[in-house]
């Protein structure tokens, strides 16, 4: 691989990946984006989604929920609130994620009755979470 | 003068105490290594996070529309002290030192006429502060059931604190924990988390990069500040975890050594009084034989 950049994926509890990659597809808050070497410096927040890494050993996918990504010319660092390798993603973990998003939404609706913006944010988070299931082939739990 | 039997019992009991403290020390040493590993693993995230936040805060911080978590409520009247301690004792001055720092802080704030509220995390700190400051308690987070502190625990605590902040319950929040330096030294530390303060980056190289922000700086900041609270609490919990085990290890090491000294002393006493009994008996026999 000719053009590679350093890629780090860290969660609060541990570092999940640190390697040279060709490109990283990031689920940004405003839409997906792909970072390659010499990308313009950018900081973006993440929405729940699938992070796809084109590495030396082929493609690796991680499921991330929230956090942010820092892209600079030399490399990309993704700081995810919660990150799970797609291969470790089970229905149980996914349901747990959706459930907490659902609870956050319900709580926001209750607490911030006069601030629709915050409720919308929570609703969007929940919708993103549910949509993510489609990408990894899991069905959201029923409420 | 204790009898021989008494002495023997004493020695046996101190010996079994020594066994227990020795075992506790070894367990603490093993746990310390794990706690240190966890603290180490969490460091890259916290460092990166703080670096980005410092950059953001510097560019947005001055404007009027800065989030309240960063700029504060504009007042400084009600202080929330979050006291992070252990759930277990037998770790030297660890819990007492944190509580002491928090108490000093509370006294100082009260003397300045501020209102103080206290949120305790960990049973021991709560017990320690209950008598004098019990009326200031606003809540308690119980981690007794938690075997290994995870980010989700920190998130729960952060959510609790942020909820109170949104309800206008306090203006300034400070966390108290012990910073781990090494096995014999843990420094009780106070750190203000709301309004957030970030250390400026030292490296000029990072500061010179001009980033694009998506969606925009303020939206990112609003999204990240609550996470920042959780991150700081998580880091504090991990430091505390390592400090607790370190303190316990050295406390138990001392206890083991003291027990050893005590055993030596008791053994000498035991041997002396045994010898005294023998000498006594001999004298009796000899003087009896001479009398004949």
Automatic annotation (TrEMBL), chain A:
Signal peptide: none annotated. Its main location: membrane. This is ATP synthase epsilon chain. GO terms for molecular function: ATP binding; proton-transporting ATP synthase activity, rotational mechanism. F-type ATPases have 2 components, CF(1) - the catalytic core - and CF(0) - the membrane proton channel. CF(1) has five subunits: alpha(3), beta(3), gamma(1), delta(1), epsilon(1). CF(0) has three main subunits: a, b and c. The keyword Cytoplasm does not apply. InterPro entries: ATP_synth_F1_dsu/esu, ATP_synth_F1_dsu/esu_N, ATPsynth_dsu/esu_N. The gene is atpC. Residues 5-83 form the ATP synthase F1 complex delta/epsilon subunit N-terminal domain. Produces ATP from ADP in the presence of a proton gradient across the membrane. It is a peripheral membrane protein. The keyword Protein biosynthesis does not apply. It is found in: Cell membrane; Endomembrane system. It comes from Lutimaribacter pacificus. Keywords: ATP synthesis, Cell membrane, CF(1), Hydrogen ion transport, Ion transport, Membrane, Transport. It holds the Pfam family ATP-synt_DE_N. One of its GO terms (cellular component) is plasma membrane. Belongs to the ATPase epsilon chain family.
UniProtKB/TrEMBL annotation, chain B:
It is a peripheral membrane protein. GO terms for cellular component: plasma membrane; proton-transporting ATP synthase complex. PROSITE patterns: ATPASE_GAMMA. GO terms for molecular function: ATP binding; proton-transporting ATP synthase activity, rotational mechanism. GO terms for biological process: proton motive force-driven plasma membrane ATP synthesis. It is found in: Cell membrane; Membrane. It comes from the Bacteria. Keywords: ATP synthesis, Cell membrane, CF(1), Hydrogen ion transport, Ion transport, Membrane, Transport. The keyword rRNA processing does not apply. It holds the Pfam family ATP-synt. Belongs to the ATPase gamma chain family. F-type ATPases have 2 components, CF(1) - the catalytic core - and CF(0) - the membrane proton channel. CF(1) has five subunits: alpha(3), beta(3), gamma(1), delta(1), epsilon(1). CF(0) has three main subunits: a, b and c. Produces ATP from ADP in the presence of a proton gradient across the membrane. The gamma chain is believed to be important in regulating ATPase activity and the flow of protons through the CF(0) complex. This is ATP synthase gamma chain. The lineage of its organism: Bacteria, Pseudomonadati, Pseudomonadota, Alphaproteobacteria, Rhodobacterales. The gene is atpG.
